[in-house]
Specification:
- By secondary structure, this protein is of the alpha/beta class.
- It has a single domain, classed as Response regulator (Rossmann fold, 3-Layer(aba) Sandwich).
- Helices cover about 50% and strands about 20% of the residues.
- It contains five helices and four strands; from the N terminus they run βαβαβαααβ.
- The chain has a four-stranded parallel sheet.
């Protein structure tokens, strides 16, 4: 079986992490979970396989999301321009 590119999930709440992993795996996606934008950038620096998407909490759009996106654009311009970056909110 060919390996799938994971969805990189940035979420600090353990309950939400579990729910997202369950939903994604139920739809056939592998999920890699990190708690912060800094951890996501560290994972991207070390990872040998690009994710197929990045899922961020909507709260990050107002908080550290801007800094994360600026770093992502600077360090990974190809990913930044081609990768779906999804801000999800809890409800």
């Amino acid at each position: 079986m060919a390996s799938r590119r994971p969805v990189l999930v940035v979420e600090s709440d353990l309950t939400v992490q579990g729910s997202l992993v369950s939903i994604l795996s139920g739809d056939g996606y592998e999920a890699t979970v990190v708690a912060t934008g800094a951890e996501a950038l560290a994972w991207l620096r070390l990872c040998r396989q690009d994710p197929c998407a990045i899922l961020l909490p909507a709260s990050m759009a107002a908080g550290g999301g801007r800094e994360f996106l600026e770093c992502l654009e600077r360090e990974f311009p190809r990913l930044f321009s081609s990768l779906p970056i999804i801000f999800a909110r809890e409800n």
